[in-house]
Design goal:
By secondary structure, the protein is mainly beta. The chain has one helix spanning 67-77; strands spanning 2-5, 18-22, 29-34, 44-49, 58-64, 80-84, 86-89. The chain has a five-stranded antiparallel sheet, covered by helices on one side. A two-stranded antiparallel ribbon has the order 1-7.
Amino acid sequence: MEIVDKRRKTDEWHAGDVICYWDDPSEKHYGLVIKPDLRTNGGCGIVAIGGNSDNGVLSHFVACTNMEDLQDFMINKYVCVERVNAKLVIE
């Protein structure tokens, strides 16, 4: 798996976006915004990418009822949270 980081500013998150978040710039983390269950009427979440789980690839991280709550949660939890213009390559 490879993450190509082509960062740009944006305020809107959508399912499929890659998010970079960190408290210490030397330890950046990446997550994929998902809509885990369409039955939740707008529920969304972030799945951590790379090394944050037992199998080292993907692990569930956080879920919220809407995208605004998800953004607020991440912004309040971490020093820096940015949407990354990225291409996710899985081999």
